[in-house]
Amino acid sequence: MRLFRHELRSQLRLYSRSRELAFFTFALPLIMFFLLGSVYGNDRIKSEHNVRAADYLLAGMLGYGAIATGFAGLSIMLVIRRESGILKR
């Protein structure tokens, strides 16, 4: 358990130092939500029991954030670690 906490702490520290990863995980979904929400936010989706479009956008942007963390974030962190010498062959 101590090894897990150490690894988690080091991973969070490396994550907090990566601006690219933070942008694609947090800022881009927020920008897209506010941009698309301002265009389609008050519209109602009739086929889905009159739900607001902003609610669907929020769920989609949360999903995008999770996927970006898993896939895009992984590739960005691998390149950063390889260039800085943390990750070696």
Please outline the helices and strands:
Elements: H1 2-16, H2 19-40, E1 44-45, E2 51-52, H3 53-84
Antiparallel strand pairs: 1-2
Describe the model.
The chain has 89 residues and is mainly alpha-helical. It has three helices and two strands. It has helices at residues 2-16, 19-40, 53-84; strands spanning 44-45, 51-52. A hairpin with a 5-residue loop joins strand 1 and strand 2. Helix 2 (19-40) runs antiparallel to helix 3. The mean pLDDT is 78.
Summarize the structure.
With 89 residues, the protein is mainly alpha-helical. Helices cover 78% and strands 4% of the residues.
Q: Give the overall pLDDT as a whole number.
A: 78
Radius of gyration, Cα only, in angstroms?
A: 18 Å
The geometry reads as elongated
Oligomer: single chain
Number of helices: 3
Provide the β-strand percentage band.
under 5%
Strand neighbour order, sheet with most strands: 1-2
User: Major β-sheet, in short?
Assistant: 2 strands, antiparallel
List unreliable stretches of 5+ residues.
Answer: none
Indicate the percent of residues in helices.
over 70%
User: What structural class do you assign from the helix and strand content?
Assistant: mainly alpha
What string gives the helices and strands in order? HHEEH
Tally of structural domains: 1
Defining traits:
89 residues; mainly alpha; two-stranded antiparallel sheet; 78% helix; 4% strand; elongated
